[in-house]
Amino acid sequence: MDRITISHGSGGKAMHSLIDSLFMKELGNSILRRKSDSAVVKVGSEEIAFTTDSYVVKPIIFPGGDIGSLAVHGTVNDLSVCGARPLYLSLGLVIEEGLDKKTLTRIIKSINAAAKIAGVLIVTGDTKVVEKGSCDKIFINTSGIGKVYYSGLSTDKIRPQDVVIVSGSLGEHAIAVLSKREGISFGTNVKSDSSSLNGMIAGALKVSQNIRLMRDPTRGGLGTTLNEIVSSGRFGIALEEKDIPVSEGVREACELLGFDSLYLACEGRAVFIAAPQDAGKVLKALRRDRLGEGSRVIGRITSDHKGKVYMRTTSGGLRLVDMLSGEQLPRIC
Amino acid sequence: MDRITISHGSGGKAMHSLIDSLFMKELGNSILRRKSDSAVVKVGSEEIAFTTDSYVVKPIIFPGGDIGSLAVHGTVNDLSVCGARPLYLSLGLVIEEGLDKKTLTRIIKSINAAAKIAGVLIVTGDTKVVEKGSCDKIFINTSGIGKVYYSGLSTDKIRPQDVVIVSGSLGEHAIAVLSKREGISFGTNVKSDSSSLNGMIAGALKVSQNIRLMRDPTRGGLGTTLNEIVSSGRFGIALEEKDIPVSEGVREACELLGFDSLYLACEGRAVFIAAPQDAGKVLKALRRDRLGEGSRVIGRITSDHKGKVYMRTTSGGLRLVDMLSGEQLPRIC
């Protein structure tokens, strides 16, 4: 394979292979190699989380959000799942010549509203304009920094019997974007779950000192995120299909289009690995937040089938949940 | 004007008007309003510089560099001119489907080499791939954080009689990119000046406590940068044309193509405003660095013609140097 394909941006196997064979090989250092949602770095005496994401979602406006709010939510969440309080965001715009100002204004207003809700400031920015046909309407990069207040989150802390919690139902973001893009509507209207989870996460971190790891299941979905978590090979994960929350609309869309909700991107959900004795209080704290009302324990860390994710299906079988291979849905974020 | 045009990305008047009428209006806060190359923010007890830039240069490989090295240099310099030691960079790639891996590998290697020279680490990244025709080969966002070690840089510190110093000749980056893009060659081959100035700048800051402000004259060139500096209206700037360093190749290209070197982007030059009594030692420190060998005092801060930049031309006339209006050269960085 000597050319970059859409699947290299999928979040799945091809992307991980590109990351390892090129980016890690050339640029690798002890911080980058951790491959967490944010880098945790020392600046003087402070521990700081630093993250970046480029947003190329198509269409730029979708049910439940737009590229502007998404760009704030995604970066706020990448900081939050690393135990940081998000503080400052940068905003890098690449705009296609001819974009109408009304659309740009709507996006900027949406960024402002999302930043206000999350309590972050946009403190630095950059605007580039390229000729018509050289980009698709607008691409947005948001990078962010936050102050780490809950330290020690690490896959190294994970132990057999730890619980796997997800904060809400899967795949609403992906299906909302897809339905708008393809002009498909489903019986139940699906709206993106895109939202800033810093408040919800802070609530959970307040009640438990035994949260081992958090991740947000964006590109590649829950299935890929859990495979990344088990990749050290020290433990496995056993999921219970019956406990995994999937809304009626997403279920219907998956049946119609042949998607698997386990691989659909969320932009307002977090996965928690927590000590079993704290499961109850973490769930309670999460459910107190509107964004975490649908929180569920969906599985456990196991000492067997190390490095793999298995799921007990509703029909009683055992299914291997592999990492996403190929591209299920391009330009979903 | 209800659509975004190329000139909105020029670094000149149209861009400033878009920034003020939309970005500042909607997103403005005391940090963003400073409009410096980096935001200087507090995280806990540390003062941190934070900046972002997206690179859309065309062609992606040009004499003296490529989009990868440029993306490192530009962000390192934005941190450096704010008195910060650049520490960590993020890397956000938007890649067009079909880009050959050899080119991508070359760019990543170039990022690595530039980061090593500047002494910064790439600590976090993101890769998106879009369909053929939805971007032009590759766009790169680098954001960066650094630790502020020289504080108090501000236009507020600037006084009449302060000197204006530039660290080298103007416009080589713009002309190198343009010559490659248009397939024009000039009598003297022009190579981009793109480089990381953190070392050179640290040398100057070490010898003087009276550097008032630094800027890097990228898009919009020296003319636009100086107009930004005088925009408070508290003082003016008087330049001496005979002292402004322009190489033979750039001079020739400007004559041939009708460009004004004052508005051409540099990617390896810095402008210093310093107290007059420190001019000698700052120049000496700058010239000790290979990248600052061509440093010159090119003008002075004046108490008259406030808010304006004037230049005494070689023929003895006085010329108003306005901010760039329109787009002189699109996609130069």
Keywords, separated by commas or semicolons:
homodimer; 333 residues; alpha+beta; 60s Ribosomal Protein L30, Chain: A; Phosphoribosyl-aminoimidazole Synthetase, Chain A, domain 2; seven-stranded mixed β-sheet; five-stranded mixed β-sheet; 14 strands; 29% helix
The CATH topology name of the largest domain in chain A reads Phosphoribosyl-aminoimidazole Synthetase, Chain A, domain 2
CATH class of the largest domain in chain A: Alpha Beta
Low-confidence stretches of chain A: none
Largest sheet of chain A: 7 strands, mixed
Written description of the protein model:
The structure is a homodimer of 333-residue chains. Chain A has helices at residues 13-27, 67-80, 101-118, 172-182, 198-207, 221-230, 248-257, 279-288, and strands at residues 39-43, 46-55, 61-62, 65-66, 84-96, 121-130, 138-148, 163-166, 211-215, 236-240, 271-274, 296-302, 309-312, 318-320. The two termini of chain A are 25 Å apart. A seven-stranded mixed beta sheet of chain A has the order 9-11-8-12-10-13-14, with helices on both faces. Chain A has a five-stranded mixed beta sheet with strand order 1-2-7-5-6, with helices on one face. The longest helix of chain A is centred in the N-terminal third of the chain and has 18 residues, at 101-118. By secondary structure, chain A is of the alpha+beta class. In chain A, a hairpin with a 5-residue loop joins β13 (309-312) and β14 (318-320). Chain A is globular, with a radius of gyration of 19 Å. Chain A folds into two domains: 36-148, 2-Layer Sandwich (60s Ribosomal Protein L30, Chain: A), CATH 3.30.1330; 155-320, PurM-like C-terminal domain (Phosphoribosyl-aminoimidazole Synthetase, Chain A, domain 2), CATH 3.90.650.10. Chain A contains eight helices and 14 strands. Chains A and B meet through α1, β1, β2, β5 and α3 of A and α1, β1, β2, β5 and α3 of B.
